[in-house]
Amino acid sequence: MFDSPMSVSAYEVLRVTVDVDDEALRRAYRARLRETHPDTGGDAALFVQVQRAWELVGTPEARAAYDRGRGTSSAEWGAGPAASAPSRPADTRPRARSHGQPGGWRRERYLSLIREWVGRGVDLADPYDPALVRSAPPEIRHILADALAEEETARLVSELGMGYTVWHDVFADRDGRDPEQKIDHLVLGPSGLYAMLSEDFGGPVGIRRGEISGANVIGSPVTQLVSRARVVARAAGVRFSGAIVVLPDDAVLDAITDLGKVRGTPVALVTRSALTTLLRRGIPGAREVGGTELFDIRTRLQQRVRHV
């Protein structure tokens, strides 16, 4: 929960300073539990966040490990999806077909903005230095966090196998020129064709009238995703089975949240750990795709999709 450029530290969640003594830390934890407990009118997602923060710093051993490890994510933030994965035996299983560069546009945007923010003429040795990133304005940190989210989604989707095809960073405006109006991922498989948004708001979010709400949520992410999917659908002559917003595991309480239909499109929120399960089984009410139709949709998208 605390390795995102957008997320706050365990100490900030508990509202204490990093040099707080153990007894004061314990009192702060109990106070935050009472404040956020759902039975007393608190926010359930924040309640879970407080508990997870305590798991990280609640014992001298855990706290020492957390303090040693905090702020050492520079290599991971700057590595990209392939290099950031931990060392493991080679996986020779067939991967999903993939087109485009996940997180590529947002990484370029982040690098441009962080250099502009630091100032011209300054030697920026490591644009992913944790101290630098965490001192940057929220809007810059959010761009990097979303790039990392897109890369992680791409890694998860790739593990679904060769029955799936994914297009990353797809233009979704009528003129095909505005990268701000993009869809992070289009995923096609037996369960359907989905437009997907990978997001990281840096903390818990809620749902209000079918839309995502929260302190760092700007605009209407769900509505925007559905609108962009309609643009791609018209251009390619295809029908989407649904839309999916992928969030970090600690952003929502439920692994899968069915939002119903938005402008006629079934929409679901899903945590990263439940994404492959949802894509295999499909969103409730979504139209499955099979047989020759799957190949027809893939061909149409391959001919029409333009990458940012």
Q: How are the elements arranged and paired?
A:
Blueprint: H1 10-14, H2 22-36, H3 44-57, H4 60-69, H5 74-79, E1 97-99, H6 104-118, H7 130-135, H8 138-158, E2 165-171, E3 182-189, E4 192-198, E5 206-208, E6 211-213, H9 221-236, E7 242-247, E8 256-262, E9 265-271, H10 275-281, H11 291-304
Parallel strand pairs: 1-2, 4-7, 7-9
Antiparallel strand pairs: 2-3, 3-4, 5-6, 8-9
Helix pairs in contact: 2-3, 6-8
Description:
The protein contains 11 helices and 9 strands. By secondary structure, the protein is of the alpha/beta class. It folds into 2 domains: 60 residues, DnaJ domain (Helix Hairpins), CATH 1.10.287; 222 residues, no CATH class. It has a 7-stranded mixed β-sheet with strand order 1-2-3-4-7-9-8, sandwiched between helices. It has a two-stranded antiparallel sheet with strand order 5-6. Helix 6 packs antiparallel against helix 8. The two termini are 29 Å apart. InterPro entries: DnaJ_domain (IPR001623), J_dom_sf (IPR036869), NERD (IPR011528). This is Molecular chaperone DnaJ. It holds the Pfam family DnaJ.
